[in-house]
Amino acid sequence: MSEARRKLVVGNWKMHGSHAANEQLLEGLRAAGPLPADAAVCVPFPYLAQAAERLARTALQWGSQDCSAHEQGAYTGEVSAAMLADFGCRYAIVGHSERRALHAEGDQLVADKAQAALARGVTPIVCVGETLTQREAGETEAVVKRQLSAVIHTLAHCAGEMVVAYEPVWAIGTGRTATPEQAQAVHALLRAQLRAATPRADQMRLLYGGSVKPDNAASLFAQPDIDGGLIGGASLKAQDFLAICRAAVR
Ligand code: PGA
What we know:
By secondary structure, this protein is an alpha/beta fold. The chain has ten helices and eight strands.
């Protein structure tokens, strides 16, 4: 079952980079040669063209960090899934905890964004995860299930097409990673929830995100329901990102 799932490692550059700095980073990634995992970088919107140009004819793919829920129209500042598809985006992160917290994105909006992406052939990477307060209150399971259930319900028979990323908010950018056992426990819950919703659950990739580094990636990726990672800080250095990709040996 799990052997059938090739690992996926996705870089989330967040709001970092410049044309010049990206040239170096993308060049470092291009030079990598074959990797044992599928890999992609999710870059800020203005740099999609640069990523598309530099990563063309490599095994690496690229994507965005958000996607509008709307098709087109008077939505100043938003970027539609059709536009992402124009730039060859393979993935769009939706519902990252920074967007949920800083832009008040709720479960239904996240689900609508995932649906808009899928409708244009862009695979949504749907992020779920609890805050430290929620974990300490014993609410982890309820929170991630509620977040995932909104997306499952909205995508309906297409739910099996998404990628899910479990990112405990307390582990993002803090250097405090969930232990492999903590992460696996939540991934197993999410997998069970997906099994009840789609026959594709065992082929779906569930990523872990939150302070993944070259030295902890292998133990996380060795867990049966962890199919790769969503990598923030460590994706900004080609060598670190590639080391994490190479940790995906299974
Ligand atoms: P981090 O970020 O790897 O810097 O913790 C992960 C993320 O927010 O996707």
